[in-house]
Amino acid sequence: MQSERSACETCTKAGCAARPRQAGESPEQYEARMQLAERMGRIRHKVLVLSGKGGVGKSTVAANLAIFLALHGRRVGLLDVDIHGPSIPKLLGLESYRTVMGPNGMLPAEVSESLRAMSIGFLLPETDAALIWRGPMKIGVIQQFLRDTDWGPLDFLVVDCPPGTGDEPLSVAQSLGDADGAVVVTTPQALSLSDVRKSITFCRKLSLPVLGVIENMSGFVCPRCGEVTDIFGRDGGAAMCRDMGIPLLGRIPIDPAIVSAGDAGEPFAYLRSETPSGQAMTRAFEPILALDADTSAQGCPGRQTEAG
């Protein structure tokens, strides 16, 4: 810990969150910021998963993206910051897990040797408990997740944000500072795309790169006859991407097996990777994996120390 702190204190990177104490910053605020910088300095790549509206399968995409990266040998953390509707515990079969404290902070759930997860759901006394919180409390707990969770060194941190452009995604984007970018999830219909455009504008205002769009629920293939039915329309995501000049990462079809896997807390990306839907996920997720193609650490000396 001391070597990391020394490296951060000598860092001259202009955008580094761990620069010397700022004007008007209390000792407590400075210490919290340094602790956050140390935690985040252990993580090579940070990816937010956003959506303009709910019900588009964003959490399913985030969970399977994290599993996909872990299956490809990366050390991955999955952070669920949907305070009012956390889905990650259910999707990963972790509803009974409750967070405990370790010597270096809160311990995330170990999904596998290379995948860890943290969610507000791990702190609730029961799964049906409702959190009736205003913005400052939500921002506080998100910063605590980022600052106090003992992730250890990671190749990727995937952050599952709630729908919209409110407190939670704003707090995450500002706290991470140097995130690689955002994956935006939509469905093909115009109603969803209208809200997704707002998410893309949100990213641009925060100078957060948009890594691309995943069009989820993109057609239904009848398991009996093979006919494709475009329940939510066709090619809406592709047209929006062309208009806004961003990549379309891929299309994931409607598949009852994805639904049943999520309800059962089973990793679809692992169990069904050879199905058409699994292959569609693979194609959509491969550009995110490619972010780690160059494994050399860049920029901050603290990060170089951790990469070792």
Protein described:
The protein contains 12 helices and 11 strands. With 308 residues, the protein is of the alpha/beta class. It has one domain: 3-Layer(aba) Sandwich (Rossmann fold). The strands form 2 sheets. Strands 1, 2, 5, 6, 7, 8, 9, 10 and 11 form a 9-stranded mixed β-sheet that branches. The chain has a two-stranded antiparallel ribbon with strand order 3-4. Strand 8 (181-186), helix 7 (190-205) and strand 9 form a beta-alpha-beta unit. Helix 3 crosses helix 11 (276-289). It is globular and about 65 Å long. The two termini are 14 Å apart.
In summary, what is this structure?
By secondary structure, the protein is of the alpha/beta class.
Task: List its traits.
alpha/beta; 308 residues; nine-stranded mixed beta sheet; disordered C terminus; two-stranded antiparallel sheet; Rossmann fold
Secondary structure: elements and pairs:
Layout: H1 2-9, H2 27-40, E1 43-51, H3 58-71, E2 76-80, H4 88-91, E3 100-102, E4 105-107, E5 109-112, E6 115-119, H5 135-148, E7 154-160, H6 167-176, E8 181-186, H7 190-205, E9 210-221, E10 228-229, H8 236-244, E11 248-254, H9 256-264, H10 268-271, H11 276-289, H12 301-307
Parallel strand pairs: 1-7, 1-8, 2-6, 2-7, 8-9, 9-11
Antiparallel strand pairs: 3-4, 5-6, 9-10
